[in-house]
């Protein structure tokens, strides 16, 4: 299945041999790590690198998600929360901060005054595109894997969707 493609080792015995080889050869031992541990370590490292980049722009990772959601057009706070997989309250706080920074604006829905549509401002669009470019070119981020990025992306999406299906009870 998925993990057998991510990890050349297809058996427990092979994994144990890889770990022992790593110790014997004096390397850092990562070659013998289980795939889940590698994935977790990589995610933490990329997340820390992203946090440093986002601090340069005084934006949070949640703020980047909101800018991503509204990059294709206005969305309600509830739609943003759903797409970002956060609570309405978390989305609201993030949107308020982005609005204070001038990256988004909220407009009342003329059909329902309780509902507000959030859209990106020119400044928000500029920051969003700068961050996309940074992801593509900054070696501290995902750019360091070069041409392998589309395949890694495909595998990560496959893993995430499989986990979602498992947690929702789908076979």
UniProtKB/TrEMBL annotation:
Pfam families (UniProt xref): MarR_2
Positions in coiled-coil regions: none
One Gene Ontology term from the biological process aspect of the record: response to stress
Location of the HTH marR-type domain: 32-162
SUPFAM superfamilies, per the entry: Winged helix' DNA-binding domain
Source organism superkingdom: Bacteria
Molecular function GO labels: DNA-binding transcription factor activity
Listed name of the protein: ArsR family transcriptional regulator
Organism: Gordonia lacunae
């Amino acid at each position: 299945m998925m993990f057998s493609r991510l990890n050349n080792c297809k058996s427990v015995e092979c994994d144990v041999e890889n770990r022992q080889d790593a110790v014997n050869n004096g390397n850092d031992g990562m070659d013998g790590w289980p795939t889940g541990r590698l994935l977790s370590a990589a995610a933490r490292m990329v997340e820390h690198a992203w946090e440093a980049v986002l601090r340069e722009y005084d934006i949070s990772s949640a703020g980047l998600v909101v800018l991503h959601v509204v990059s294709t057009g206005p969305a309600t706070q509830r739609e943003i929360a759903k797409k970002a997989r956060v609570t309405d309250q978390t989305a609201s706080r993030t949107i308020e901060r982005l609005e204070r920074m001038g990256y988004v604006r909220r407009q009342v829905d003329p059909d329902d005054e309780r509902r507000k549509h959030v859209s990106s401002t020119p400044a928000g669009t500029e920051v969003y595109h700068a961050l996309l470019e940074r992801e593509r070119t900054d070696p501290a981020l995902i750019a360091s894997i070069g041409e392998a990025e589309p395949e890694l992306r495909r595998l990560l999406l496959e893993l995430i969707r499989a986990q979602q299906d498992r947690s929702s009870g789908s076979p």
